Write a sequence for this structure.
């Protein structure tokens, strides 16, 4: 029990590290996921190909391998950044593939006539997507996007293995200090729960607000 | 048929869906201010014909020109062309997440770059014209089919199109709602709008159309004045088709 009170600042640091990783990676994943979903439904064949390759490669690569690729690979090309930034890139890109597919399945639930009507009025592909199709897809994509971001929060633990400060990594220091391993992990689990339950709560609110069918 | 001032010209247009040859050497000219009714059995390619004119479907060979301009490829030019070609669908396709007023205003703001209040003013005028001024703040799902289709017509007119395409605009409607939509179309025809109308409503064809085009198996088989066509069809396909639809 003392493990939390004695080491509160260590826990807090790890907790904030995980929150930071989750927030930044989520933003990157949402932006990239949105972009790739647009590519995948674009009228231009080369864009569709880029979207498909992006999703196929990232969704089928183990996340740990992707971390290795980013952390060891990018510096080879002269790109040297803090490990936290590399971790955000790896997590964000990986998760964007899942966001992309969630958005795309939402887009597919909108009847094709909606997009056709918009295009027949002279609206561009981008206008059709942003003002007609996505707003109607939005309510169906809230739950899967929420699940994907919860998975992201938990996947951020992998960054600890690459000496990025985050919640799971705190166990190493604590077990070296001789604290009970069970309680150490219980408090770590509570930390993750706080983050994931916050994400669920946020998405529940979104769903209540926008998820009503008209 | 000789057309004085052509607005739409299709020359040797061919279109395939995989193996299926849906449009076969279509040659069709539609003059400015003309109302052309397209009629024919289900699956004969009428919808496809309409959809190729604003390039919702691409074609394999031939040319389509609108007001002297060949149809552009995908991109800005194509969007600009579509803004000039109004289209009304069998299933209305009103934007489900927007009010009636917003449905009519959206493309005016996004495509014609009108200010919101200017667009809304124009939308209300058009809703008035189709008899739906009082429904402006409702959502499409709250309207009857006939009302939805009239909103769809107003939405297309809001772009000030050069021509309006109607693909079986009354086929999805209950019988008592067909007339309210046809009346709006009649008025449009009287006002001089160029119209291509796929419909089996012979009353409309007789009273509003300048020409009737009969399609079967992806070909234009007859292209004549409505009275000629209905009273003296030349082809066996047309005779057979008319005998079927005249029975009920
Ligand atoms: N998207 C499509 N893919 C494949 N075949 C299609 C498609 N749309 C229509 N068809 C086929 O093309 C033919 C013509 O269809 P259509 O133009 O809708 O005819 P109509 O409107 O005269 O009933 C039909 O045989 C139909 O099954
Ligand atoms: Mg049809």
């Amino acid at each position: 029990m003392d493990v939390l009170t004695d080491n509160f600042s260590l826990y807090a640091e790890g907790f904030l590290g995980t929150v930071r990783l989750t927030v930044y990676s989520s933003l990157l994943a949402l932006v990239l996921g949105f972009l790739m979903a647009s590519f995948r439904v674009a009228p231009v064949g080369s864009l569709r190909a880029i979207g498909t390759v992006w999703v196929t490669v990232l969704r089928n690569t183990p996340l740990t391998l992707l971390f290795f690729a980013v952390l060891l690979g990018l510096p080879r090309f002269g790109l040297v950044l803090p490990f936290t930034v590399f971790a955000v890139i790896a997590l964000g890109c990986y998760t964007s593939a899942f966001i992309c597919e969630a958005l795309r399945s939402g887009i597919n639930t909108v009847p094709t006539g909606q997009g056709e009507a918009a295009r027949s009025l002279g609206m561009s592909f981008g206008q059709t997507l942003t003002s007609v199709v996505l707003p109607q897809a939005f309510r169906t994509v809230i739950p899967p996007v929420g699940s994907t971001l919860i998975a992201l929060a938990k996947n951020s633990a992998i960054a600890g293995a690459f000496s990025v400060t985050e919640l799971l990594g705190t166990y190493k220091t604590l077990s070296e200090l001789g604290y009970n391993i069970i309680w150490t992990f219980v408090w770590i689990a509570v930390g993750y729960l706080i983050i994931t339950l916050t994400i669920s709560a946020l998405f529940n609110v979104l769903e209540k607000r926008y998820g009503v069918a008209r | 048929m000789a057309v004085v001032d052509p607005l739409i010209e299709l020359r040797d247009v061919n279109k395939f869906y995989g193996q299926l040859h849906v449009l076969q050497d279509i040659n069709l000219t539609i003059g400015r201010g003309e109302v052309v009714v397209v009629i024919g059995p289900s699956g004969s390619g009428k919808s496809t014909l309409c959809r190729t004119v604003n390039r919702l479907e691409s074609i394999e060979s031939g040319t389509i020109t609108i007001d002297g301009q060949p149809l552009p490829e995908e991109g800005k030019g194509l969007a600009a062309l579509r803004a000039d070609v109004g289209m009304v669908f069998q299933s209305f396709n009103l934007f489900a997440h927007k009010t009636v007023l917003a449905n009519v205003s959206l493309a005016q703001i996004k495509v014609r770059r009108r200010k919101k209040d200017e667009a809304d003013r124009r939308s209300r005028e058009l809703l008035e014209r189709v008899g739906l001024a009082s429904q402006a703040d409702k959502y499409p799902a709250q309207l009857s089919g006939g009302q939805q289709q009239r909103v769809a017509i107003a939405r297309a007119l809001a772009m000030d199109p050069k021509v309006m395409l109607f693909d079986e605009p009354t086929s999805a409607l209950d019988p008592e709602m067909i007339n309210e939509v046809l009346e709006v179309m009649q008025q449009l025809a009287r006002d001089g709008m160029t119209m291509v109308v796929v419909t089996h409503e012979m009353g409309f064809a007789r009273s509003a159309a300048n020409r009737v085009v009969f399609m079967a198996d992806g070909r234009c088989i007859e292209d004549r004045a409505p009275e000629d066509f209905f009273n003296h069809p030349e082809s066996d396909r047309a005779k057979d088709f008319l005998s079927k639809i005249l029975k009920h």
